[in-house]
Amino acid sequence: MLAAPGIDAPKTNSGRGFAAPAARAALAKGYIVAVIGSLVDVQFDEGLPPILNALEVVGRESRLVLEVAQHLGENTVRTIAMDGTEGPVRGQQVLDTGAPIRIPVGPETLGRIMNVIGEPIDERGPISTKQTVPIHTEAPEFTDTSVEQEILVTGIKVIDLLAPYGKGLKIGWWIILHPIFRQH
User: What is the Cβ-side half-sphere exposure of residue 87, based on CA atoms within 13 angstroms?
Assistant: First the structure.
């Protein structure tokens, strides 16, 4: 199983992103029992993957990643599909990746467009970064946040010059209130 950009592979000795045979065998295998829109219920023979773990549907032309959202009981989890669910059928095999969905971060990602699982969709080739982070992380501590007022640079010269926005402020209110101010 190849570790795709959005999912960490199990730790291996090869360093190539492939799971070692022992690690591959240790990953939980499940089967699709229901598809309801973007929700997919998956039943496992033994052991449930933790909530927020990534699962991958086996035997598809295009890659379909599922994220565990809820434990339903009877060795079944409810997942959210990260792409369209046209094609998966009951009984289709699903593998637990053993990790949450991760996306690349760093200077190499600036100006790039990627989907929710970290795959580039801007047709500019793969994104090569040294670091990936889970798509779900803890909020920063209040003491780690900045209390200084900063200007949000939009990149639109007219807005940045005539009506600069503050970071963290409600920008939408200006759009609503501006016509009222102009009339009075």
Answer: 13
Dihedral, CA of residue 54, residue 58, residue 60 and residue 63, to nearest 10 = 20
C-alpha 26/C-alpha 121 separation (Å) is 32
Q: CB within 8 A of 113, min separation 6: which ones?
A: 120, 121, 122
Q: How many CB atoms sit inside 10 A of residue 85's CB?
A: 17
What does the pLDDT look like over 19-48, one tens digit per residue? Answer: 333 444 468 999 999 999 999 999 999 889
Q: Could you tell me if 79 and 56 lie in one domain? A: yes
Cα-Cα-Cα-Cα dihedral of 145, 170, 104, 62, to 10°?
150
- pTM of the predicted model over 0.70: no
**Are residues 162 and 80 part of one domain?**
no
Residue 96 phi, psi dihedral angles, 5° rounding: -80, 130
Q: Report which of 162, 167, 166 is spatially closest to residue 178, judged by C-alpha positions.
A: 162
